[in-house]
Amino acid sequence: MGERKRLLLFSTISLMFLLSCQSQHSADENYILVASNLQVPYWQAAGAGFLQQAQQMKVRAEFVGPKDYDPKAQQDEFRKAVQKKPTGILVSPADPSLMKDDIDAAIAAGIPVLTIDSDAPSSKRLFFIGTNNYQAGLMGGQRLVKELQGKGNVVVFTMPEQSNLKERLRGYRDALEAYPQIKITQVVDIKGDPLVAFDTTTALLGKQGVNAFVCLEAQAGKEVATVLKSRGIKDKVVLAMDTDPSTLVNIQQGFIVATISQKPFTMTNFGLRMLDDLYHHKLNSLNMDWSQDSFAPIPLFVDTGSSLLDKNNVAAFLQLNKSMIDSMAQSHQ
């Protein structure tokens, strides 16, 4: 057996052992997930993963966050969560710089904090669970190159203060670096308002030269597709993010080429198990820079994976998603 295979086997066995140790749970355990936008289907999937795992472990769990994109409101929800002195917190910082001091204060108070989906790397959070966003952007960029056949003008919709979206854009830019005839002509901050994407797309269609729209978050893709659909336009390349039902329908109808699927259910489900393990197997200290420790008991980053959905595999995804929903519904009967 080669060295790489031995290391992989050792890592797998170690992870299985770690999870197998979580056999007993305390009635006073209370975990809180602080999302960034409760109305988005992405976060509803994340909430389902979190609450399902809490039910299986028979621990208390709360799923909180603002009802729309509002970093300050999320900060307020996080502060309320800390005041409850929970066993652990999962949070996806909409604005990492805004949340840094609050995360650090929670760690100082002895409350383990893990970031999911969007990281706050300058904070003292223990580690990040989520998508390798750079690789997701690279994947999207490679598909964009293929669709544009090496030439075209691209408009990007994003929210630049979020670290995960910054990494996605970096991945796209790197994928396009070898193709100088593909140019990102505009980067639009939608500020959490999908109507910005709708209005911007509408305005840009009256001008010449826009060949593609890249949407780095969940809401913009369906707005771009709505504008194109209303005008019967199918010659624009649209790459979306996440698996909002409207996004998937637009892939089937040909108004979105592809979307990058993440695993929010997995992030929170696994995240809760990690918080539970940190409760039952406490670290010597929460207030340490484990990234500099070659023998750290925790990782720096857990990649939950991503994949590309297009017209070739979207139907299979929808069927799998339906099976999961039906299974969850039966478990709650």
How many E-type strands?
12
Low-confidence stretches: 3-23
* Tally of separate domains: 2
Count of runs of 4 or more consecutive helical residues: 11
Helix-strand sequence? HEHEHEHEEHEHEHEHEHEHEEH
Main sheet: which strands, in order across? 2-1-3-4-5-11
Rounded mean pLDDT score: 90
Assigned CATH class of the largest domain: Alpha Beta
Distance between the termini: 47 Å
Structural class: alpha/beta
CATH homologous superfamily of the largest domain, by name?
Answer: Response regulator
Percent strand equals 15-25%
Radius of gyration: 21 Å
Q: Estimate percent helicity.
A: 40-55%
Q: Could you list some keywords that capture this structure?
A:
single chain; Rossmann fold; 6-stranded parallel β-sheet; 11 helices; 12 strands; 47% helix; elongated; disordered N terminus
Q: Describe it for me?
A:
The chain is α/β, with parallel strands linked by helices and 333 residues long. It has helices at residues 3-20, 41-57, 71-83, 96-108, 133-148, 163-176, 194-204, 220-231, 245-253, 264-280, 314-331, and strands spanning 30-34, 60-64, 88-91, 113-116, 128-130, 152-158, 182-189, 212-215, 237-241, 258-261, 301-303, 307-310. The protein folds into two domains: 21-131 and 263-299, Rossmann fold, CATH 3.40.50.2300; 133-261, Response regulator (Rossmann fold). A six-stranded parallel beta sheet has the order 2-1-3-4-5-11, sandwiched between helices. A six-stranded mixed beta sheet has the order 7-6-8-9-10-12, sandwiched between helices. Helix 2 runs parallel beside helix 10 (264-280), helix 3 packs parallel to helix 4 (96-108) and helix 7 (194-204) runs parallel beside helix 8 (220-231). The radius of gyration is 21 Å and the shape is elongated.
